[in-house]
Request: fold
Amino acid sequence: MSKKPVIIFEGIEGSGKTLHSNFVSRYLKKKNISFIKIREPGGSKNSEKIRKLILDDNLNFNKNTDLLLYLAARSENIDLLKKYKDKKLILIDRFVDSTVAYQHYGLGVNLSIINDINKYLLKNFKINFTFLNIVNTKNMIKRLKLRKKLNRYDKFNSSFYRKVQNGFIKIAQKNKKNYLIVDSNKEIKINKKIILDKIDRLIK
Ligand code: TMP
Reply:
């Protein structure tokens, strides 16, 4: 395993993805390990502009436009990611699995189109490890209610998020050794330890 791995955090709304990735950034800072952290959609300046457009609650794109916008946002990050690959550890809050889970499993866009464009964009940029954060419907709804502002993708019904989460789980099960499923219905402290122990093993 590379000492400067590319580590991804995936999961549906309210799955603890952002909380868990923040534990990792704080841990790496404390250990003086240099890293970059980006989110998708977003990250680079141009990709953040595309993010605003995709998630704007006053707009309503169709599922293919959404797909192309998410991929456009990714395309604007690739140079940045390649620049730091093997030089710094890379943390990414959502990446290619989100496109498969939301646009294919959630919205029914053709899977091979998504895989082909992702492959075309990524070329030989490889992910080393993914934390897939999961949550039950009750906790998801509870956590979404606490958000001050909801974006366009925070407003699907719970059966949509079930489909998306099951999609994420299917992806993780195909490649078990590179995924850890973190059950965020459990105590935060327990998950924090599980995640940081795994990070230790990934950077050793
Ligand atoms: P965030 O709120 O976690 O930053 O994510 C924004 C939303 O974008 C989230 O609902 C998931 C969605 N998304 C997709 O539908 N496809 C993608 O490829 C990505 C990266 C995110």
Notes: Strands lie at 6-11, 35-39, 89-93, 129-134, 179-183. The chain has a mean pLDDT of 96. The radius of gyration is 16 Å.
